[in-house]
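Re: beginner question about structure tokens

> Can someone show what the tokenized structure looks like for a real chain? I only ever see the sequence side.

Sure, here's an example I had lying around. Input first:
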Amino acid sequence: MEIKMKESPKYRQPQKIEIENRQWPTRMIAKAPLWVPVDLRDGNQAFAKPMNVEKKIRYFKMLTAIGYKEIEAGYPAASNEEFEFVRRLIEEELIPDDVRIVVFTAARKDLIDRTVESIRGIKQAVVHCYAATSDLHREFVFHKSPGELKKMAVDGTRMVVEALKDAGLYERCAYEFSPEEFSDSRLDYIVELAEEVREAWGRPGKGNFILNLPATVERRPPNQYADMIELFTRNYSGMGDTTLSIHTHNDQGCAIAAAEMAVLAGAERVEGTLCGHGERTGNMDLVTSALNLMSRGIETGLDFSNLPEIVKFVEDVSEIKLYPRHPYAGELVFTAFSGTHQDAIRKGMAQRKEISEYFGQGWKVPYLHIDPADLGRGYEGLIRINSQSGKGGVAYVLENVYGIQVPREMQKEVAQAVQKEAEASGGELSAEKIHAIFHTVFTEAGGNTELRDVKIRRPAPKDHSGTAVTLKVRIADREYSLNGTGGGPIEGAVAAFAQCPAIPPMQIESYTEHALGRGSDAQAIAFIGIRFNGSETIVHGVGIDRSINIAAIRAIVNALNRKG
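And the corresponding structure tokens:
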């Protein structure tokens, strides 16, 4: 008789963390943790083409320039190149006095000895040792009992102590231990192991012993990870002599959330990488994490004021292009295509002073949670135009890139012209293209009417209080010399046009003007709205000239041509 085994579900909920009166959900992050970039080890080992020594030195210098005070340098026992890199940092005195490096090793004597050899002569360092503690690893990778695995971790720690003492480095170095796959391990077991590892290290003090509790593979939701961290702090007796560190990966897309919740739960030190590079889906993104805190008014100790340059460097060494919507660092993260969003951003940017006074904070703009300028980004890319964009977006681009202040009553008409082109192309329109459309439609409106010459006399010969305007125009195949007098040049031009039987009666409904640029050679731009033959429709034209008066007359001609 065939015996069928009971089928288990393929996936299950992670085991519930039993914790009473958890405190972390009600806390607020008040200060930044100690940030520790692991780009040179965890990030680098995930690149298809790992960095060479020269690139790693450049990367290290960038990390110190950003402001990191503790930097994982690598796994010096893994290869000669890794070893050489650490040696060059020391021998070429590339490590600032206020920075200490971390060197990574497995709990094996030959690897530990090689690791300690790599840091001879260093002023200060952290030796980081690890052992995977999940039942999955213990039973099916190591094939060890809980006691055997604990002994391996404790023995490894003692070997680190011995090697450091032999090298005369014990007093200069701190020790970091990681129970790898902490979030998939039994918590009571981790507490016991941590107690024994701390005792084996033997040097009390916050800066001397670091316990790193990693979500090596993200198998739990962030709240459960935080529960584990808080519960650990309640049961572990050495919190006063231990710096509690965390290390999260992004397998389920929650590395940032897990890290922030872990800090609320008691973590003081956070490991991650710039832009989230690392094994599989990557490590926790240090840029995002730090700028999250910065956006909440918390001093981070880090400088990302040149973020585009940092991103370009990371892209170059990793040979991986950053996703354009990557938080903070992506090309499009401050860009709006939607018309309603564009309008709100445009209005918010125009009223920043008033908004600041109203809310009592320096930056608060619709749809922009942080000032792009703080990251070395300009405002020109805030609004980009496609078929979904609105009048406010088009107006913003013309004003901020080209200084053309389209009057409110004309913005809809300009936007319609741009949208028509966007729909035809099916894609985004550059600022240059928008500018070209504006000129083609409104300032260079081809048609039957051509302005050949303008003469303006003030005062007028027969009316000393008025202005006389003489126009030479070509309409179709005929040339006309037209004369008119009015209170000003525009009124005089309208009176002149009224003398031509080929031009319909017109009434000026709106007029604005402003300078384009500064200085003696700056041009003027004039916007005019005209009602022809008493029609309800207003036709707009735009004129540009060094003379504001001639610019206004050119605007009338362009409106005539646009009428058809």
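Each token stands for a local structural state, so reading them left to right follows the chain. The CA atoms of residues 55 and 317 lie 7 Å apart.
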